[in-house]
Amino acid sequence: MAVDYAVIVVYLAGMLAMGWWGMRRAKSKSEFLVAGRRLGPWMYSGTMAAIVLGGASTIGGVGLGYKYGLSGAWMVLTIGLGLLALSIFFSARIARLKVYTVSEMLDLRYGGRAGIISGVVMWAYTLMLAVTSTIAYATIFDVLFDVNRTVAIVLGGTIVVAYSTLGGMWSITLTDMVQFVVKTIGVLLLLLPIAVIKAGGFSEMKAQLPTEYFDPLGIGGETIFTYVLIYTFGMLIGQDIWQRVFTARSDRTARWGGTVAGTYCLVYAIAGAVIGTAAKVMYPNLASADAAFATMVKDELPMGVRGLVLAAALAAVMSTSSGALIACATVANNDIWSRLRGAVVRDGGSGKPHDEVKGNRAFILIMGIAVILIAIALNDVVEALTVAYNLLVGGLLVPILGGLLWRRGTAAGALAAVCVGGVAVIGLMAVYGILANQPIYYGLLSSLAVYVVVSLATPPTDAAVLAAWRERLAGRGAPEAEESAPEPATT
């Protein structure tokens, strides 16, 4: 295993080096939080694909393939479809807003009264997303190298927190590009063909497995519909995804770069399902479907290659973890703490100049430590992730898409939708169970009904607010760009 360990150590050291380089570049709030809004199409595509394809898409995607066959691809397929929808229909308008958070967008659209409540909901979602990604380190290290769960979480989490804190979005962007390349080589170019060959090829896989393993809808129509509601719609409104859209240097980059990333996700989804199906042929009696990925890597790959594919799994986890962490810290600082601090200043508190980069760096460190501690204490990853996505979609989908698509939507309607949708989801999860489908179905319907009824029952949004909103959507009227180093746009 010495060669495999060497590959992993080199990879992890490279992540820290990227963090140090990013620290030297991130000199302003814009540079630190959104990479100066200067990413070109290739770097934008790679980083966007890296953040949406995390441990759940890699380890979980292979596990679903092991359990359901080719239809196990649907979870990751719906992620890719959501990214395609975001990129084609919304990303250009989102990029032109020149904001930092989803809550800032809601403030612009509804007149400054929807931000803090939506910020709390978004913060809870990004926190849980970061926690579940961090827990995945334990799965990788424990199965392959027999490392204690707590040690694995602390080791992986500390490296992510370190490079994210040092350089913010620049460090995360650079590491994501490396992680994208490593995932492509490790999963698509190495593990996929090796798994199919070891299983005897597709003809042998079909001979060994039941026919439902090759049914595209074998996982069930209701499950697919739930995936669409949670993951496709979740891609449209998550702070972690929007913050990457904000890094694009133009709306064209956001649209076409995201389309490339979404297409890549579809390929990755099918690859994971095929790998899982092959694992079912070779290891038909695994205790857990999620162990299929690690078992394949440990038993079927030669040394060196095994280390590279393990690095690919770490890359998948780290890209999602770092993206969720900076999103969580950005929301906590800009949407919650800054508003509270502003209220203190208005009431007579200190009005000293505030170092934006230093403040955001401190919040990443604080949130990172909290994520590691919660990850150590938490055991059920699936339940935590389900709670996060249910809250996000049930509480925020309607007011966000309503603000983008329906002029008559009002601040009162948006606040009511956030509160009613969020409470409904939580209450229904308590009644039906966290993993039940009913909470997201009924929570989303209640949010939509309240949004429409309250919006129609209250005065329309002020004409001046809507005029300013339309100006920002058109790319005009945005605040002046922050000072940053006069470097060329990054491709």
Q: What's the CATH architecture name of the largest domain?
A: Up-down Bundle
Give a count of the beta strands, DSSP E runs of length 2 or more: 0
CATH class of the largest domain: Mainly Alpha
Class inferred from helices and paired strands = mainly alpha
Distance separating the two termini: 37 Å
Q: Which whole number gives the mean pLDDT?
A: 86
Walk me through the structure:
This protein has 491 residues and is mainly α. It folds into two domains: 1-338 and 359-378, Sodium/glucose cotransporter; 381-475, no CATH class. The chain contains 19 helices and no strands. The protein has helices at residues 2-25, 29-34, 41-52, 55-68, 74-96, 102-110, 115-145, 149-198, 201-208, 221-237, 239-245, 251-282, 292-300, 305-346, 356-377, 381-405, 411-432, 438-457, 463-473. Helix 3 (41-52) crosses helix 12 and helix 16 (381-405) packs parallel to helix 18. The longest helix is centred in the middle third of the chain and has 50 residues, at 149-198. The protein is globular.
Layout of helices and strands, plus pairs?
Elements: H1 2-25, H2 29-34, H3 41-52, H4 55-68, H5 74-96, H6 102-110, H7 115-145, H8 149-198, H9 201-208, H10 221-237, H11 239-245, H12 251-282, H13 292-300, H14 305-346, H15 356-377, H16 381-405, H17 411-432, H18 438-457, H19 463-473
